[in-house]
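Comment on both lines for my students:
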Amino acid sequence: MFKFFKNVSREMRKVSWPSGRELSKYTVTVLSTVAFVAVFFAVVDLGISQLLELILR
């Protein structure tokens, strides 16, 4: 178990971490993409619901 964590520690030192500016940019990109997808599917869901309501009346 100790060897495993030692190897993990060694590998983590090799990781290239993003700078603060890059991290902020990536965070904004991810959040805006998630918001866009959520709004898109909400609109599609609303459209399908309205269409089914019209058909089934």
